[in-house]
Amino acid sequence: MRIAYCTNVRLPSERAHGHQVAEVTNALATLGHEVTILAPLRRNVVGADFWTYEGVLKTLKLQYIGRFDPIASPFLPGVLGLRWMNAVMRRGIRRLLLSASFDLAYTRSPSLLSTMIDTGVPTILELHQLPRFGRSAFTALCNRCALVVPLTQAMAGALRAWGVEPAKIMVEGDAVNLRKYASLPSKDIARQSFNLRTDRTVVGYVGRLKTLGMEKGVETMLRSIAKDKRFFAFIVGGPDTDCRQYRSLASSLGLGDHDVRFTGEIPASQVPSALVACDILAMPFPDLPHYRLHMSPLKMFEYMASGRPIVTSDLPTIRDVLSEETAVFCKPGDTDSVNQALAWIVDHPEETAARAARARSLVERYTWEERMKRIVERMRGKRG
Fold this sequence. Notes:
The chain is an alpha/beta fold.
């Protein structure tokens, strides 16, 4: 099929949403589809081109829309720049979808959805967050889509309650590129590459430190480590402003270089090594609406692929994938519960290894190619 992937995010991007767009489109291209990405022209802090930075197939086409970056313009401050960019994107998408013979349009950007549907090209919406306003209009748009793909069962339940036709809904979380985990270094070599030297049990957090300014559990992890000095915190991710904040918190908790190591942002190619440098991987998310309803964390699938034991907050979105067969759960935001989970892992090495092995086996279902194959086949089946 000829597929137009329409997005209003900057590409390439160092942020998770840009990586997710790259993985989705690359999986579609790997499956043999002809994919054209339609994205806004933006100034970019990333020096490499999209294909080099993300390591995606050269057969992927990327067409930028616009003549300048309105978000960077001093004449369009704040939200005006975003509105201008979305208006330019909608005009460009309408023109390109009407002038080319695309079989399918795909997006994770609801602001572009009505324009895509109005062209008559069958449209799939991949939904990462429920809208806060305009529920009735959004529901009507969803019912005009060929398929709506919320990341979580919680979002799917909300959509059905709003009136979206159940037959149009297909839940698919995020996924992982297992090719990046096909040849992992040993733990010792991985630790050498990060100059990580400690005799303690290393508990890792790998990924962006905050989402939309919200805590993701790094504070809980630091407070947990401060209570039990058997463990060493290895915190991998950025941006620098958040790193500085957490370094300051660590210092206030009495944690020094012998207790915690911050790396800041690292290239995506180094993430597998960072994961296998750890003894345990942590996802101590707080119990906030975003994490309870919308989240399908990329790090969860990367953690599973690494073969390391996982400690995670007990949230419905995590339960979509993991269970007591594959992870150890703790209460969200509860440092004592985190400590108990970490101690349980140390005290039960055989069961811990078995859970990690089951998680590694389970993640075979959650590759990007398998995910996108299921979505395309479901869409074809509905049309056929």
